[in-house]
Amino acid sequence: MRVFHRLGDLRQYRQGVARVAFVPTMGSLHEGHLALTRAARKYADTVIASVFVNRLQFGPGEDFERYPRTLQEDGEKLAKAGVDALFAPDEAELYPEPQTCFVEPPDLQHLLEGEFRPGHFRGVATVVLKLFNCVQPQTALFGKKDYQQWMLIRLMTQQLALPIEIVGMDTVRAPDGLALSSRNAYLSPAERAEAPRLYQTLRALKEAVSREGWARSAALQQEARQSLEHHGWKTDYLVVCRQSDLQAPSDAAQSLVIVAAARLGATRLIDNLEIE
Q1: Are 261 and 116 in contact (CB under 8 A)?
Q2: CB-count burial class (<10 Å; 0-12, 13-18, 19+) for 112
Q3: From the candidates 33, 110, 120, 230, which is the catalytic residue?
Q4: pLDDT tens-digit profile of 130-149?
Q5: N or C: which terminus of the chain carries fewer CB neighbours within 10 A?
Q6: b/e map of 25-46 (b: 16 or more CB within 10 Å)?
Q7: What domains sit in the chain, N to C, each tagged with a CATH number?
Q8: Is 33 among the catalytic positions?
Q9: 16 touches 89 (CB < 8 A)
Q10: Of the candidates 155, 162, 105, 106, the residue with the CA atom closest to the CA atom of residue 133
Q11: What is the pTM of this model?
C-alpha cells in the first residue's frame, strides 16, 4: 500500500490509475471502516482511503484534542484489507491557510444532530468536498451509522453535480448489537456492558411502530426515550422520521428511520434503524 502525506504526491499517483473508489475516515479504524474498504473493491480496481481528523467539524468543548489518533495501526489495518493507497495529510497540508470558504449545506443540517452540534455539518461537507477534489474518485463509500451525514453528502454531490456515486453501507455492529464507533473506546467496562441497550431500544421501537402504525410514533418514541433515561442515559434525541428528509411522518406509505443520539456517562453514542 502506498502512503501519501502530500497532495502533490497523491495527485501524481492518481494520474496513473483510471477508476478509484474512495473511503474517507478520521482514523481510529474498526471493522466498520474496513468493511467499507472491502466493499469499495466492487466499484473500482483502485481503492484509496484517507485518514484526517477534521478540526472544522468539532465544536467548542468537543473531543477534537482527545479524538484517537492511531495512524500507524490504521495503516497496517488498511494494508491488510487490500487498500491500494492511503492519503494521510496533516492540517498544514489540507488547510495551508485558514479556511474561509465553506460548503453551506441545506436546512437539513440544522435538524437533530445539527441542533446539538451547530456548524458540524458545514465542517463535514467542506472537508469531504476538499477530499473529493484531492482524490477525484468515481465512487465514495460512507457508513449509514452517520445517517444524517450520509444524506447531506448525497445532497451535496447531487446539487453540485459532482461526478461521484455515493454508496451508503449498513451499520456494522458488535455481536451484542452495539454500532461500531471509534468513540466506543471511551466507554468504561460497565458502560460498555450497558451500551447495547441503545440498539435494543431502537429495535423495540421499530417493532412497536411496525405493529401499531406511524400515527402512534410520537407517543412510542417518547416511551422509548423514557426507558433509556430510566437506565441512566441522557438522550439528545430519539425520533421516528421520514427517510427522505428526516421530518415527522405524515402517512403510512413513507419509508421511516429511527435516529438517536444519547450520552452514556461522558460518551455520546449515535445509532439509527430504518423501517421500510
Answers
A1: yes
A2: buried
A3: 33
A4: 999 999 999 999 999 999 99
A5: C
A6: bbbbbbebbbbbbbbbeebbeb
A7: 2-169 (3.40.50.620), 182-269 (3.30.1300.10)
A8: yes
A9: no
A10: 162
A11: 0.95
